[in-house]
Amino acid sequence: MIKFKPGKIIPAGDMYFIYGDGGTGKTSLSKQLTGNKVLLMFDGSYNALADTTDTMVYSFDDTDAPTLQQTVWQTVNMLANSEKVDAIILDNVTALQNWVLENIDGASKDGRQNYQKLQVWFRDLGMMLRRSKKTVLATAHQIDNGSNGLDGKGRFEADMNAKTFNAFTAPFDVVGRIYKDQKKRYIDLDSEQGNHAKNRLDERTLINASELFESKQEEKTA
Ligand SMILES: Nc1ncnc2c1ncn2[C@@H]1O[C@H](COP(=O)(O)OP(=O)(O)O)[C@@H](O)[C@H]1O
Ligand SMILES: [Mg+2]
Asked: For 12-54, how does the pLDDT look when each residue is reduced to its tens digit (9 = 90+)?
C-alpha cells in the first residue's frame, strides 16, 4: 500500500524500457529527462555522460559483481524512497542480468531453478521501480535474429532471458527499440512489427529518439 500525506501526492512517473545496438544513443537518452536523475550503470559506458551536470552516476564493475544483487537492491530501494530523486535510470539491464545470472549460477548448479530465481529477482526489481512512482528508464542490448520471411517481422528483441524480460518489463509503460538510420535516431514502439515493443502512454508507433519523453510533457502543459 502507498499512503500520501495531504498536499504531498507525488504523480506517478512513467517507465520506459529501450533496447538497441551499441552506439545508438541509449545512455544519452537519460539527458532528455528532467529533474534530479540517478543513473546506475552496468556496462561502463559513462563517457556519454561526461558533459552532464545534472546526473548522479553509480558505475558498477567487476569488483562489485560478487555482491551485485544486494548492492543494486539496496541502492534502488534507497533511491525509490528518496524525495530528492525524480528519475532512476538502469543502464544497461543486459549487463546487469548477466552478472546476476553468473552469481546465481555460481551458488547453485540447478540451471532451471537458477533461471526462476533470476526471473523472480527481476520481477521484484521491476515492481520496486513501479512502487517508487518515479520516472524510470531502463536500457538493454538488442538481439538481431536476422530477416526471416518477406516482412522481417519479429526480427529484434532485447538481449535478455525471455521470461526475465517479461517479468521485468510487465510494469513498464513503454518498450521500444532505438536505432540509427541516415544519422538520425528513431525509436520503434510498434507492437505490430512483431518485435518487443509496447506503448501504453499514447498512440505513437515510430518516434524520433529526441521525442521519447514528450507525450507526458505535452499533456502536462496542455
Ligand atoms: N541524440 C543524439 N544526438 C547526437 N549525438 C548523439 C545522440 N545520442 C547519442 N549521441 C552520440 O552517439 C554516441 C553513442 O551514444 P551512447 O548514448 O553512448 O549510445 P549507447 O549507450 O547506445 O551505446 C555518443 O558519442 C553520443 O554522444
Ligand atoms: Mg551506453
From this structure: 789 999 999 999 999 999 999 999 999 999 999 999 999 999 9
In a domain, 8, yes or no: no
Tell whether 2 is covered by a domain: no
How far away, in angstroms, is 5 Cα from ligand 2 center? 38
Q: For residues 58 and 55, what is the distance between their CA atoms, to the nearest angstrom? A: 10
Residue 160 lies in a domain: yes
Tell which one of 18, 19, 28, 41 to mutate to probe ligand 1, the residue whose CB is within 8 A of the most ligand atoms: 28
What pLDDT, in 10s, does the model give residues 169-188? Answer: 999 999 999 999 999 999 99
The residue type found at 17 is F
Between 183 and 2, residue with greater pLDDT = 183
CB atoms closer than 10 angstroms to residue 210: 16
Instruction: Find the residues whose C-beta lies inside 6 A of ligand 1.
Output: 20, 22-28, 45, 48, 185, 209-210
CATH of the domain at 66: 3.40.50
Q: Which domain holds residue 80?
A: 15-221
Instruction: Give the count of domains, the chain.
Output: 1
> Looking at the domain assignment, is residue 154 inside a domain?
yes
Task: Please tell me the distance between residue 44's alpha carbon and the centre of ligand 1 in angstroms.
Answer: 14
The C-alpha cell of 122 is what? 527481476
Interatomic CA distance for residues 25 and 174, integer angstroms:
17
Å from CA of 197 to ligand 1 middle:
21
